[in-house]
Design brief:
Elements: H1 3-23, H2 28-50, H3 55-83, H4 87-95, H5 103-111, H6 113-130, H7 133-138, H8 145-153, H9 156-169, H10 176-186, H11 189-203, H12 212-239, H13 244-254, H14 260-269, H15 273-294
Helix pairs in contact: 1-11, 1-15, 2-9, 2-10, 2-11, 3-4, 3-6, 3-12, 4-12, 4-15, 5-6, 6-13, 11-14, 11-15, 12-13, 12-15, 14-15
Length: about 300
């Protein structure tokens, strides 16, 4: 398996965003809004309806993903004193991993279509948490439960998850003529999100990679993302007695680099987007030598 074939397009899109951000002075705001409000909901709706695994397997993988995310959230609150900053400043790239843009092609190449079904479910559960728990964390500054709920319920992605879940449970078949344009829209999500990430990096101040405190925080984020992800993954599969392919998928997905959408959410809600963008890029680069090890987790 040639991992560079998976990672090269990711870095190419980020680089394109960085170049156009510097050259044309493009801003990430409109790109982030388009991804959050249109393209990502289409991707999630299509992926949930076409995931090729049974409801029983879907339930087990969903439960494991939920356990991992909740454990990582608890870990962030425990680690808060080490950062000397609010949880909203560092938690998003720790809690949310790149189980979609990186995880799906990785599982396809390593284990085949059945593994893809499991990682798609894992990724969609993460998306649900990202646009509920993630919004609560990112908007931690004085947001009440009612205020958080209003933000969450207005998110098109949450509506897409609820709609797809209802159709799946009701065994309603969506016509191909409807799914095809939705799939077409959704397929644009990964490159658009990565370009937005590059645009943010073009605006990132150099102090982020020269200031000792910023470097310390980035190092802590990487440690929690990889080591914490592996530990929480093992805790989840042990708690739920997962074996075989579902166990491998959960372990590997839990230890992948920071999700591109951890930056997108930080940008949308003003939760230190510069740091989140740097964490996504650095963790993705660091994952290159780590992936062969991660693929051996069982």
């Amino acid at each position: 398996m040639n991992l560079s074939h998976i990672l090269a397009p990711i870095f190419a899109c980020i680089l394109a965003g960085f170049v156009f951000g510097r050259w044309r002075n493009w801003k990430p705001d409109l790109w982030v809004a388009a991804v959050c409000d249109l393209f990502m909901p289409a991707l999630v709706f299509d992926a949930l309806l076409t995931a090729g695994i049974s409801l029983a397997d879907m339930a087990v993988t969903s439960a494991a993903a939920a356990v991992v995310i909740l454990l990582l959230t608890a870990l962030c609150f425990i680690a808060r004193p080490a950062f000397g900053a609010p949880v909203r400043v560092f938690a998003l790239p720790v809690i949310f991993m790149n189980s979609g843009f990186l995880g799906i092609p990785l599982m396809d190449l390593a284990f085949g279509p059945e593994a893809v079904g499991h990682v798609v479910v894992y990724d969609q559960v993460q998306s649900l948490f990202m646009f509920t728990l993630g919004i609560w964390i990112a908007g931690e500054r004085g947001l009440s439960a009612q205020g958080t709920f209003k933000l969450v319920i207005r998110e098109p992605l949450v509506c897409a998850i609820l709609a797809a879940g209802a159709l799946k449970l009701a065994h309603v078949s969506v016509p191909e003529s409807v799914l095809r344009p939705i799939h077409f829209l959704g397929s644009a999500t990964p490159p658009l999100a990565l370009v937005a990430l590059g645009l943010r990096l073009a605006e990132t101040p150099t102090r982020l990679v020269t200031d000792p405190r910023s470097l310390k925080n980035l190092a802590l984020i990487l440690i929690l993302r990889f080591a914490g992800g592996i530990a929480c993954g093992y805790a989840a599969v042990t708690l739920l007695s997962l074996t075989g392919l579902p166990r491998q998928v959960v372990l590997i997905a839990s230890a992948l680099p920071a999700a591109v959408f951890s930056y997108v959410l930080a940008e949308r809600y003003g939760a230190e987007p510069d740091q989140a963008a740097a964490a996504v890029v650095i963790s993705t680069a660091v994952s290159l030598p780590l992936l062969p090890f991660l693929l051996r987790l069982e």
